[in-house]
Amino acid sequence: xxxxxxxxxxxxxxxxxxxxxxxxxxxxxxxxxxxxxxxxxxxxxxxxxxxxxxxxxxxxxxxxxxxxxxxxxxxxxxxxxxxxxxxxxxxxxxxxxxxxxxxxxxxxxxxxxxxxxxxxxxxxxxxxxxxxxxxxxxxxxxxxxxxxxxxxxxxxxxxxxxxxxxxxxxxxxxxxxxxxxxxxxxxxxxxxxxxxxxxxxxxxxxxxxxxxxxxxxxxxxxxxxxxxxxxxxxxxxxxxxxxxxxxxxxxxxxxxxxxxxxxxx
Length: 265
Description:
With 265 residues, this protein is of the alpha+beta class. The protein has two domains: 5-87, Phosphorylase Kinase, domain 1 (2-Layer Sandwich), CATH 3.30.200.20; 91-243, D-amino Acid Aminotransferase, Chain A, domain 1. The protein has helices at 51-68, 107-110, 140-149, 153-175, 236-239, 244-258; strands spanning 10-13, 17-21, 28-33, 36-39, 44-47, 75-80, 83-87, 91-102, 118-128, 179-191, 194-198, 206-210. Strands 1-2-3-7-6 form a five-stranded antiparallel beta sheet, covered by helices on one side. Strands 8, 9, 10, 11 and 12 form a five-stranded antiparallel beta sheet that branches. It has a two-stranded antiparallel sheet with strand order 4-5. Strand 4 (36-39) and strand 5 form a beta hairpin. The radius of gyration is 18 Å and the shape is globular. The two termini are 29 Å apart. The model has no long low-confidence stretch (mean pLDDT 95).
């Protein structure tokens, strides 16, 4: 099935997606993927032909799996290639919520940690969405204050719990393919008063590293020797300056794996 959006009202356009009204149902919208890829809060920008289709495949596989596992998400279906049908938000919470199982990325710049340190349980951080400010992180003590003292604070508690739940669900799913989910970034919104996982979950939403060898031992503080970061399958390949063909190939590998999530219990 193909959808022609020429006559549909465009609600908003982001760096990687366009949201259109659904003229037949005001409670849902269409989320159309783009071939664009960005990094550095939009400072780096390229177009990879076919990326929209690859991201759509990954997003579909992950959200269908999360729905099956009982996670509250905005995702309903994928009525056409590169297009998802999702619930319309009452309110978008302007935060990025990051849960980390293994230390990598930006946390190395300011945390007293080494690459490969394992968090058990995972840690979760809230970042205010603002590209010019580089998505500043909210202080953990301030988040705890909001949770216990402010109206709407329960949203933060729900998001924190949901983020860890999603990380653990997907971590187990990827482990079936000898891959470790390193960290995960999600966004949330309100629908009929409830908090839902929204937006996309694709190769730009997480870090994913292969196991270095069969049956890795994760019962240690640092697990870098058990993993192979050089074989990473995520957007860090783009951040690190790899060629666009390589980036697309890595994303295609992710899509092929998440399409097999339907085989998992």
